[in-house]
C-alpha cells in the first residue's frame, strides 16, 4: 500500500541491518561478493529491524532498501534503467500498474518458495515474473466526530457520495499521480462500467469533490479526521484512503483511544494487490530470490500489517489484535480484470483528467 506515504521525490537510500564491509573502507566489492541485496521500493516499505536481522543472519545476506517515491515513480525509474537495474528486487508494483511492469520486460521469472501458501486470488501472473506480497482495500474514510456532530449518517457506498448532503465533503487523490487516486477511479469503473463511470464522476464533481496530488496531501492535510489533518486544520471529513487507516490512527495516538476516530465506507472500496519481482540484470540474483522467499514467509507476513498497514496474502498468517479490532473486513470490494486495466488504464486516466481536473 503502501499506507502509502507515497510522495514522489529524489531517491533515498536506507540501509537496514548490518552495514556492508565495503562501507568500512578499502576497495568496494560487487554486491554478489559482499552478499548485499538491494531492494528497490516505494516510500512505504517497512519491516521490524529484528525481523529483518533474523533473515540476514539466517541467509548470510545484508539488505539495503532504495526508496524511490510513489510506486508509479519508482516503477518508471526501473523501466528507464531496464537491463541495468538499480537493485536486485523491486517491491510495490500493484495490480493497477502490473501490465506496465510486465510489458516492459524488467522482471526475471522466479517461482518463490512458499508460493503454494499464497491465496490463488492474488496470483495474477502465471509466469511468476512477480510474486504477490500484500493486499489492501482503497476506500473512502470518514471523520466520525464530524458526522456525529452534524447528526448525519456517514456515506457507505459510491452512490451515497453524490447525494446533496455530502456536497463539498470529499477529498481524493489525482488518478494520474497517485495509486489511491487511480484505485478510486477503478472502483467507479468496476461499479458503473466503461459506459457509466464518466457520468458518475460528472455528478461527483458537481457535488464538490476536491482533488489533490498525493495521499499525503489528502489524508494528512485536508482530511479532518486524521491526526495530521487536525493539526493542518483540514476541513474535509471524507477522504480516499485505506480500510486499514483506522488502526493507524489508534496505534500512533497518545494515549490510544478505545475506538478509532475514523471509519470506513465499505461500499466504496477497490482491492489493491502489491507484488515483488526479481529485476532482470540483478547483480545478486541468488540473494534476490532469497529475499522474495522471505517476503512471502510467515514471519514477514505477520510482521507486515503494523509496519505497512496492509493485509497478508499467505493463507495461515495471523493479523494482530489492533488490526482486527479497529480495521474492517471488506467483503465485496470492486475489482477490474488486469487485462482490462492494461488495455484501458491510460485512456481512462486521460478521460478522467479532462473531466475532473481541467
List keywords for this structure.
disordered N terminus, 358 residues, 11-stranded mixed sheet, alpha/beta, 15 helices, single chain
Structural class designation: alpha/beta
Cα Rg: 20 Å
> What is the number of helical segments per DSSP (H or I, 4+ residues)?
15
Helix content range: 25-40%
Give the N-to-C terminal Cα separation. Answer: 28 Å
Main sheet specs: 11 strands, mixed
- How many individual β-strands? 11
Quaternary structure type: single chain
Low-confidence stretches: 2-32
Q: What's the helix-strand series? A: EHEHEHEHEEHEHHEHHEHEHHHEHH
Average pLDDT: 89
- Strand portion: 15-25%
Q: What's the shape?
A: globular
List the topology elements.
Blueprint: E1 12-15, H1 31-34, E2 36-41, H2 49-59, E3 62-67, H3 71-80, E4 89-94, H4 98-104, E5 107-108, E6 131-143, H5 144-149, E7 170-173, H6 179-192, H7 197-206, E8 210-212, H8 215-222, H9 227-231, E9 238-242, H10 245-251, E10 262-279, H11 285-295, H12 298-303, H13 305-308, E11 311-312, H14 321-326, H15 338-357
Parallel strand pairs: 2-3, 2-4, 7-8, 7-9
Antiparallel strand pairs: 1-3, 4-10, 5-10, 6-9, 6-10, 6-11
Helix pairs in contact: 7-15
Amino acid at each position: 500500500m503502501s499506507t502509502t506515504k507515497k510522495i514522489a521525490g529524489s531517491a533515498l537510500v536506507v540501509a537496514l541491518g548490518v552495514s556492508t564491509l565495503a562501507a568500512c573502507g578499502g576497495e568496494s566489492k560487487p554486491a554478489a561478493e559482499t552478499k548485499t541485496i538491494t531492494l528497490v521500493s516505494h516510500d512505504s516499505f517497512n519491516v521490524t529491524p529484528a525481523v529483518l536481522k533474523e533473515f540476514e543472519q539466517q541467509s548470510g545476506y545484508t539488505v539495503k532498501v532504495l526508496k524511490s517515491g510513489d510506486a508509479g515513480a519508482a516503477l518508471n525509474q526501473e523501466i528507464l534503467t531496464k537491463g541495468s537495474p538499480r537493485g536486485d528486487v523491486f517491491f510495490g508494483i500493484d495490480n493497477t500498474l502490473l501490465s506496465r511492469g510486465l510489458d516492459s520486460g524488467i522482471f526475471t521469472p522466479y517461482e518463490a518458495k512458499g508460493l503454494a501458501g499464497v491465496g490463488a486470488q492474488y496470483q495474477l501472473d502465471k509466469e511468476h515474473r512477480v510474486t504477490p506480497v500484500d493486499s489492501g482495500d482503497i476506500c473512502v474514510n470518514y471523520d466520525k466526530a464530524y458526522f456525529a456532530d452534524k447528526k448525519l449518517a456517514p456515506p457507505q457506498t459510491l452512490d451515497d457520495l453524490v447525494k446533496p448532503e455530502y456536497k463539498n465533503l470529499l477529498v481524493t487523490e489525482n488518478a494520474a499521480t497517485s495509486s489511491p487516486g487511480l484505485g478510486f477511479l477503478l472502483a467507479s469503473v468496476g461499479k458503473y462500467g466503461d459506459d457509466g463511470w464518466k457520468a458518475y464522476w460528472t455528478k461527483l464533481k458537481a457535488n464538490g469533490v476536491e482533488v489533490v496530488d498525493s495521499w499525503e496531501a489528502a489524508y494528512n492535510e485536508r482530511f479532518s479526521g486524521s491526526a495530521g489533518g487536525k493539526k493542518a486544520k483540514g476541513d474535509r471529513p471524507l477522504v480516499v484512503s485505506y480500510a486499514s487507516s483506522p488502526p493507524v490512527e489508534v496505534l500512533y495516538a497518545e494515549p490510544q483511544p478505545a475506538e478509532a476516530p475514523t471509519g470506513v465506507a465499505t461500499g466504496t472500496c477497490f482491492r489493491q494487490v502489491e507484488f515483488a519481482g526479481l529485476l532482470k540484470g540483478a547483480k545478486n540474483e541468488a540473494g534476490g530470490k532469497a529475499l522474495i522467499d522471505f517476503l512471502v514467509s510467515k514471519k514477514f507476513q505477520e510482521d507486515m500489517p503494523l509496519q505497512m498497514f496492509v493485509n497478508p496474502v499467505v493463507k495461515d498468517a495471523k493479523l494482530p489484535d489492533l488490526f482486527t479490532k479497529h480495521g474492517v473486513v471488506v467483503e465485496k470490494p470492486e475489482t477490474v480484470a488486469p487485462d482490462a486495466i492494461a488495455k484501458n488504464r491510460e485512456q481512462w486516466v486521460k478521460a478522467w483528467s479532462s473531466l475532473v481536473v481541467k
